[in-house]
Structures are given as C-alpha cells and as structure tokens.
Request: fold
Amino acid sequence: MSTEWEKLLRRAEDCCTGCGKSVRSGEIVTTLDVAETGFRRQDWCISCFDERNPPAFSFWRRRILKGVARRRLDLAYLCELLKRLEERNDAPSSRLRWIAALLLLRKRMLEEVGREHHDGVETLVLRFKKEDREFRVTDPRLDADAISAIEADLARMFDLEGNNNGG
Reply:
C-alpha cells in the first residue's frame, strides 16, 4: 500500500489532465492542489494550465526534450527517503541510506559535521543545510558489486533509466 507522499511523487502522467493530449515532450506544468482527501498532483499542457481556474495551490514548470534519455534525480524525494530510512536498522536500509547520503553530499544538500570511528567502522555525522538536526550514517562497507546493484535500484526507483517513451 503506497502512502500519500509516494502517490504525490509518482512518475509524471503521459497525458494532460485538461485535454488528454500527450505531454511526452515540450513544456509541462505540474500542479499540487489541496483536495478533501489530501494533496492531488496533476500534469498539464501549457494551454490547459493557463485556462485552469481556480489557480493551483502550488505548481512548477519543466521541459521534456524529445530524444533526451536521462532524467534528473529528484533530490527532494531522495532527502525524504534518507529521513525515512533513519528509523530502519536492517542491512538493506543501511546500505541504501549510505548511498543516498553520499549522493546528497555530492549534490551539496547535506553537509558533513563530523566523523566517528568505533571498532574500525566509520560513521558520518551529517546535517541538511537548512536544518539543525544531525544524521548518523554508518559505512556498511560495500564492495563495488553491491554499490552497482544499489545504484541500479535507485535508478529504477527514480526512473533515471531514460524510460521517457512510456515503454
């Protein structure tokens, strides 16, 4: 069962909410509205968005270029994933938390506050740039194959494999 957060962050629709035309290339507007049951996300072509009434609670514009195979990593979703993984202590979650933290460090969404060493195991002490709360992320000592497998899983999770053609 997916949460409301997961539903909001789902992949963009292939057609406009207003007219039903394909929105696989060109400029797209994604709206977030408050509904009776929570938030609702919708994707619109420019002309339908301009005619829409009432205005959206929140919206953002993006451009999909025809023939571009790679999509961008959704950093907001990755930040939320890292926060949710903090409460889990199983091995797969710890490996995913390590990779997510490294990606967010690389993208400068996290900053390193310090490092701790216990019994030969390194723990990074991290903080989101706009928050005071610290995260401790322990190195799970991954080999190259494990890192590749986790990166492939993340690519599938975030639809980074270039599947813009709907197939």
User: Anything to note?
Assistant: Residues 75-157 form one domain. The CA atoms of residues 25 and 66 lie 5 Å apart. The beta strands are 26-35, 38-45, 58-64, 110-118, 121-128, 134-138.
